[in-house]
Structures are given as C-alpha cells and as structure tokens.
Write a structure and sequence with these properties.
Distance between the termini of chain B: 39 Å
Largest sheet of chain B: 5 strands, antiparallel
Shape of chain A: globular
Order of helices and strands of chain B: EHEEEHEEEHEE
Number of helices of chain B: 3
Radius of gyration of chain B: 16 Å
Helix content of chain B: 25-40%
Shape of chain B: elongated
CATH superfamily of chain B: Molybdopterin biosynthesis MoaE subunit
Number of strands of chain B: 9
Helix content of chain A: 10-25%
Order of helices and strands of chain A: EHEHEEE
Largest interface: B-C, 31 and 31 residues
Structural class of chain B: alpha+beta
Largest sheet of chain A: 5 strands, mixed
Strand order of the largest sheet of chain A: 2-1-5-3-4
Oligomer: heterotetramer
Distance between the termini of chain A: 37 Å
Number of strands of chain A: 5
Strand content of chain A: 25-35%
Radius of gyration of chain A: 12 Å
CATH architecture of chain B: Alpha-Beta Complex
C-alpha cells in the first residue's frame, strides 16, 4: 500500500520534505516503520526521542498501519 | 473566543483572561511563555515555531479534559503561537479560573508542564552562528 | 508604573503584565484575584475593601524582598484595589517574570499566600441580609 | 502621654472610630495596651486574632510605646 507520511521539526529536515509518500507492505506495524525509517535516515537515531503518530494520536509500537492512515514523524516536542 | 488555538496571529493576553473570567470565580492563574533573548548566555536572534496543528489541538483538548477531571476549575484557555517570534514576544498563554486559587495554580502549572511534554509543537532557536531545534538531541 | 500599589482605581491587568515583561524572561505567572458572586452558596452583593495603606505598602515591599531572596525572578508587580467591588471585579493582581517558569509560579504563589496572611487589607462581604468582615471571627 | 490610635476593619467598627486619642501611661508595653483595649472593648476578644502595629510594623508584646508613635489595631487581615 502507498501511504502519506508527514514530518515535522528536525524530522522534516532529516527526511528532506514535510510530506513523503512511501510504499509500505500490508500489515506493517509502527515499530517496523520506525526501524525502516531509522535505517533509511540514520540521523533519526540521534534524536532524544522519535515517535510515530497515526491519525493524530501517539501510536503504540504494535499498531498496524492501515491504508488511508495519516502517519506523522514526531521528533522531541518543544512548545511553550 | 475559542478555548484552544494554534495561531500565527499575536496572542492578546487580555482576551484570554476575559474569556476565563466568571462571576463564580475567585482566582485566575495565567501563565505567559515569552521568547528569551538568550539561551545559556548565547544571543537568540529569533525563534521559529511550527505545529502539527490538528494533533496539537487534540492533545490540548486532552489536557483540558485531564485538568477538568483533576481540579474544580471553571474555565481554561490555551493559545499557542506559531511562526517567527522575537525576544519579548508571547509564545503561549494559559489562563485558568476557579473558585479558589489552589485549583487555578495547580491546573495552570499542570497544563504548561504537560503541553511541553506532549503537544506536537517545535521551536528552532536561531543564533548568529547557527540554529538548533530545541530538545532534539540529548 | 509602580511595582506596588494600593489603589481605588480599577487595576489594568495588561499594564501589570507589560511592567514585568523583560527580554531575558521566558515565563510570567500572573495571579488575578476576582470578586466571587457567592460565598458558601450565599449571594454576595458587593465587597468593601479597606487598607492601612502605608503599612500595606511596607508589607508588600517585604514580600517582594523575600521573593527576590528566594527565587531568581526578574520583576514583580503587586497591585491591590480598595473601595467597593462587585462580582467579577479584579481585587488583586500579582505578576512575576523569571527566566524559567518554576521560579515564576512558585514566587507568585508565595506572594499571594503571604499577602493574604500579612498585608493589612480587610474585606467586608455584603449580603442581602447582612454583612461580614471576612476571617474576623473563628 | 497622649497617643493617636488607628483602627481598621472590624476593629474600627468595635471601637467606633478610625482614630482615637488615648491617654497612656509612660512606658506602656504593647501587651498591656492590648489587655486594656480588650477590657474596654470586650468584642475585640472574640476576634480570630488581634494584633497591634507600631509605626507600620507588627509589634512584639514587650515593645514599649513611645510618644509620637503611630499605633494601629489590626484585626485578622483578609486581602486578596
């Protein structure tokens, strides 16, 4: 399946774009996506933390990504 | 005025206060986060804030629900600015009204502490010789 | 604007905030004490505040000195109103700026708690069927 | 000596005037003045607390009142 991935803050700078489209295998879980992204963009591994949100909610590692989900890369937040 | 906002416009603190004023309230606590002109002695030229707006609003909504479950507060307003800000500019305002000051202080403190931990907003500090995404690296 | 005031005039919250804004500050905490429309379920028609003004100012000055000794705050403003106030009116504003929010919150909380214990200001609650000097009797 | 005594809040209502002039014996201490006032105005004894300020400062019980001092009756404060 093809899926749109949003990226913010330093994650956006690391992946080079605020929005990328990735071809993911069906049934992919959040932890595996995270591992794949860290392999493709090793700088993600240097961050203090790096979360994945699915449909605007912090996702658990075993969450399965479904077609049409909004996936976002969330580097350490620093609002306020 | 809406209770929660992520906005490119300057935040008007008085409007946030007016929005939480209630005749049954005896105490309002307001936290105002402003842009510092220096970090660890290094001059900051500007800050650049960005937000994952839809998720930021839902995380703020979660904070409001938590606050209302934990403390007897009357009203709460949280406005956060995005875009380019300079020293002295207001980045965030949290206003909480309650019958008594204990609840107002504790709820306001909880709200800003939680906002800084969970709400998807990011700031980049721009110095004369470079720029840094705050908290990004250990 | 003066750091401390006991005043018959309405307090303008924004002016108190502007007076503590400093380019080196990252956090401002503001406490606003307002007049409640009821006490223990009983409708309050108005409050009447009076102050021993010269002593109130010197006790406020003592609070400011204590705060500055205890926390790394930048600026602090305390304005208290006297005279006749109605539900929703602002009776007191305390604004504290600091580099970080911990100091601002703790100093503001200490200032209002201490004000309520030591500063010679009195309020009378006027109900439909009588009036009571607050805290006068056990 | 003659001395001016200010009274505030409920103390003002109990003594009947914001300013009274009292004739005090020389060397009178704050505690004795308090006792005398409570005898003259028994309602002062019913208050949660009742302090004396001398020259704008909360006075210790053994403070001696001097001619020209500004003495004030301070019932429980309730600002804020």
């Amino acid at each position: 399946m093809k899926i749109n991935i949003l990226a913010f803050g330093i994650a956006r700078e690391i992946v080079g774009s605020p929005l990328t489209t990735a071809k993911l295998i069906d049934g992919l879980r959040v932890q595996q996506l995270k591992n794949d992204l860290e392999e493709q963009y090793p700088k993600l591994k240097q961050l203090t933390s790096f979360m994945i949100a699915v449909n605007g909610v912090y996702a658990m590692p075993d969450t399965v990504i479904e077609p049409g989900d909004e996936v976002a890369l969330i580097p350490p937040v620093s609002g306020g | 005025m809406s209770e929660l906002a992520i906005t490119y416009e300057p935040i008007v603190v008085q409007q946030c206060i007016d929005a939480v004023l209630a005749p049954q309230s005896g105490g309002i606590d307001v936290f105002i986060g402003t842009v510092r002109d220096a970090t660890k002695g290094k001059k900051v030229l500007r800050l650049e804030f960005e937000a994952y707006e839809s998720m930021a609003l839902s995380e703020l909504q979660r904070i409001v629900a938590d606050v209302k479950a934990k403390w007897p507060v009357h009203k709460i307003v949280i406005h956060h600015r995005t875009g380019v800000l300079y020293a002295g500019d207001v980045a965030v305002v949290i206003a909480v009204s309650a019958a008594h000051r204990d609840a107002a202080f504790e709820a306001c403190r909880y709200a800003i502490d939680t906002l800084k931990q969970t709400v998807p907003i990011w700031k980049k500090e721009v110095f004369e010789d470079g720029e840094v995404w705050v908290a990004a690296h250990p």
